[in-house]
Write a structure and sequence with these properties.
The protein is built from 7 helices and 19 strands. The protein is an alpha+beta fold and about 350 residues long. Strands 8, 9, 10, 11, 12, 13, 16, 17, 18 and 19 form a 10-stranded mixed sheet that branches. The termini are far apart.
Length: about 350
């Protein structure tokens, strides 16, 4: 018996995975290597590609990563998972404007606007960054938008703006992926958070995993054995008493890391609806102040978070690459409103 399906699931550490293939071995299954087992069952693939997936911990036997040499046994559940949805439908190229910061034969750096979903899926089957990339590369015969060996190397949330790098060759994606894994990239964010800080700079360390009480949220775990190690360095840029503009430098890159780490310190991001920042958490009870904050929510109708800086080593030339994009208009308007409010006090 064998079955093939595509679904979304979360592992015990809170990492999001998408199951691209799943097969259940028959009771009479002879013990064979998992790379051969999968090559015989997945159309239009090669043993080398299956081995690459196994090396990236994307081949699971009964829910645990295995190497290519793993011997499949009767009733084993063999899965292939990836960090993006499986595209069971054709990716339609859509002429969505891209703010391209840099491009060469190996990679592309884009400045993603807030509100743009990265990957199709979960009800967003069009209008995504992947659809925009399909249009941008429509005349490039070497770029297949559905090929997992190409494309986005990392992600940022739908309502976070800022820099993302896209790999145009398999070698570029492998090299850049290793740089992110080995924490040698440079990523700096700018955020507005609720509250004032006692110290001008600091470091937040805390394992992050799926919130057991709310599957849509991540959380900092009190048990050091649960979740993934995460480190965020922060520095105050500008303080307005009730809210603060901070610079955050990521040492690790976990899901919702800045949002969750700041929340754990009592500083949820301004207007972050998922983590409670879309309510008035600091300030006065005066109606005039409430109206001012509501106006601020309207000016920047999303969490105030922007991926401003991205740095990495070029996968082909070895050159150190550093990119910076300006604060977007909605966040800049938000900052200006708070500056004016503070000056008028």
């Amino acid at each position: 018996m064998a079955e093939e399906e595509s679904s979304f699931y979360i592992d015990e550490e809170g990492t999001e995975f998408y199951e691209h293939f799943r097969f259940v071995a028959d009771k009479g299954q002879q013990m064979i290597r998992v790379d051969k087992f999968l090559t015989d069952r997945i159309e239009k693939t090669s043993r080398n590609r299956v081995q690459q997936a196994a090396d990236a911990n994307c081949v699971l036997a009964n829910g645990k990563p295995v190497k290519s040499s793993y011997k499949v046994k009767p009733f084993d559940v063999i899965s292939v998972v990836m960090d993006r949805p499986r595209y069971d439908f054709e990716i339609i190229a859509e002429d969505i404007p891209l703010d391209i910061v840099y491009e060469d034969n190996y990679l592309l750096v884009v400045n993603k606007p807030a509100g743009l979903v990265v990957h199709p899926g979960h009800g967003n089957y069009s209008g995504t960054l992947v659809n925009a990339l399909a249009w941008h590369f429509k005349d490039n015969p070497d770029y297949d938008v559905s090929d997992p060996r190409l494309g986005l190397v990392h992600r940022i949330d739908k309502d976070t703006s800022g820099l993302l790098v896209v790999a145009k060759t398999p070698d570029a994606k492998t090299d850049l992926g290793l740089q992110f894994f080995n924490k040698t990239t440079r990523r700096e964010y700018v955020a507005m958070v609720w509250g004032a800080f006692d110290e001008k700079k600091g470091t937040i360390t805390g394992n992050i995993a799926r919130n057991p009480k709310n599957k849509l949220q991540m959380a900092v775990m009190s048990d050091p054995a649960i979740g993934k190690h995460a480190v965020t360095h922060y520095e105050v840029i500008e303080s307005f008493g009730y809210v603060t503009i901070v610079k955050c430098v990521l040492e690790t890159g976990r899901t919702h890391q800045i949002r969750v780490h700041m929340l754990s310190q009592g500083h949820p991001l301004f207007n972050d609806a998922r983590y409670g920042g879309d309510r008035i958490l600091k300030g006065t009870t005066f109606a005039k102040y409430r109206q001012f904050v509501e106006n601020c929510f309207s000016v920047c109708p999303r969490q105030a978070l922007h991926a401003r800086t991205l740095g990495f080593r070029h996968p082909a030339t070895g050159e150190e690459m550093n990119f910076e994009c300006p604060i977007p208009p909605d966040m800049e308007s938000l900052f200006e409103k708070w500056r004016a409010y503070r000056a008028a006090e």
